[in-house]
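seq as requested:
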Amino acid sequence: MGIPILNCIGIWGVDPIGATGALSHHSPMTPCKLRKRPTLRLRLRTAWNADELDEALASGADPLASQELALRAAQLVEPGKRTELAQSLELVVEQVVAGGPSPTGPTILRREPVSRNRSGLLALAWRLRGDGLQCLPGLAMADRLVGFGDSPLYMALGPLQLLHRIEEILAALEPDWDGVPADMPRESSGK
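struct tokens:
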């Protein structure tokens, strides 16, 4: 189990980050490893392993377990990264609504799932732009949705697969998320 206070953006530092949604790299609680500029070697390892690091962070890994996880976590919580993710989702919706080829290249989107989940994708983009708390597992999941070819944006077998992923990401962005998808049956403790 990771350190809970490090899994949400608004709690990384002592300053009132929750109001701005920004991570202060110089706050007293920020890891010493991230106070100075990471080495080129660390940045390259982090970029090369972004998929695995995002998967680990989405699963609730402690962001301070390694330098790579700490750097990837810091990258994901940056307001610019959140804006980039939101813009990407909005562009996907625009592209599918317009029905034309991708303006950025030969991106292969699953048009039917995207078309049927426009409102969910736009809600996710709106949530990523929000100033409230943004929990790290949800940000890692959103990055995987947008940036990796095995996500339901590109490989969905149907609209429901993308819908479930969107709902899971929206839930994971919330500070009180327990890691279990909302539609998963829960075991009752009183047998």
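The two ends are 26 Å apart (CA to CA).
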